[in-house]
Amino acid sequence: MTDRASVPLVEMRDISLAFGGNHAVDRVSVDLHAGEVVALVGHNGAGKSSLIKILSGAYPRDSGDIVIGGETASIANPRDAKRYGIETIYQTLALADNIDTAANLFLGRELRTRFGTLDDIAMEAQARKVMGRLNPHFQRFKDPVKDLSGGQRQSVAIARAILFNARILIMDEPTAALGPQETRQVADLIRQLKAEGLGIFLISHDLHDVFDLADRICVMKNGAVVGTVRTAEVSKDDVLGMIILGKCPVAAVPGRGASR
């Protein structure tokens, strides 16, 4: 591996955030490489969502550094995050239910003709191109997205994120409330994005998904990192011990939140 290839897409170094006296994120460090899925796991309130909202520009950090591609990044709002190629797919997907796929993909970034009108033909052509890459069987371009299945809606949300050249994807519970077939479809999409060199932070409570999809697992507890492990080197019981007890297995790189 070359030095350039070894540079992480993202490094979050000693990130802290407090709300009043409560340390939502307490000196957390985590990194992500191209073509890698890193799962962030832990109980509700462990700090996962707050950490990711810092990276996505939704929350300002109190201290610490964010490094993108080896250079210190200034992320003060979601627009800054997008400028660095960071896109977030929330559990709610944030799709506009009453409009079709192309309109959702370009929502807020619509293409226009030289006359200033919406260029529906160009937007649909781009939508067909990106959806063809992600889900070749998708054909419901004219339907409002509220009529799509959960897996199809997730495809639309992912397509919207990568249409504008995202390099870093944050996925919040991407298979929640999906059936087995749709879960497999979303898992295939994640593997495809990984193969294309995107880096993915995966937030999930489902350890089956985590072990199927993640290369590494970062466990958080009480706002701090318990430890980071390579998925292939641990068992689900090891990870549960980290989540519940804050206990690190031998294979883990311990964090500040590990039990002493």
Structural features, described:
This protein folds into two domains: 1-85 and 167-260, P-loop containing nucleotide triphosphate hydrolases (Rossmann fold, 3-Layer(aba) Sandwich); 98-165, no CATH class. It is of the alpha/beta class and 260 residues long. The strands form two sheets. The chain has a seven-stranded mixed β-sheet with strand order 6-7-8-3-9-10-11, with helices on both faces. A four-stranded antiparallel β-sheet has the order 2-1-4-5, with helices on one face. It has helices at residues 3-6, 48-55, 78-83, 101-105, 120-134, 150-163, 180-195, 207-213, 236-245; strands at 10-19, 22-32, 37-41, 63-68, 71-72, 86-89, 168-172, 199-203, 216-221, 224-230, 253-254. Helix 5 packs across helix 6 and helix 6 (150-163) runs parallel beside helix 7 (180-195). The longest helix is centred in the C-terminal third of the chain and has 16 residues, at 180-195. The protein is 33% helix and 24% strand. The radius of gyration is 19 Å and the shape is globular.
Major sheet: order of its strands?
6-7-8-3-9-10-11
Mean pLDDT: 91
Number of helices: 9
- Detail the poorly predicted runs: none
Oligomer category: single chain
Radius of gyration: 19 Å
SSE map:
Layout: H1 3-6, E1 10-19, E2 22-32, E3 37-41, H2 48-55, E4 63-68, E5 71-72, H3 78-83, E6 86-89, H4 101-105, H5 120-134, H6 150-163, E7 168-172, H7 180-195, E8 199-203, H8 207-213, E9 216-221, E10 224-230, H9 236-245, E11 253-254
Parallel strand pairs: 3-8, 3-9, 6-7, 7-8
Antiparallel strand pairs: 1-2, 1-4, 4-5, 9-10, 10-11
Helix pairs in contact: 5-6, 6-7
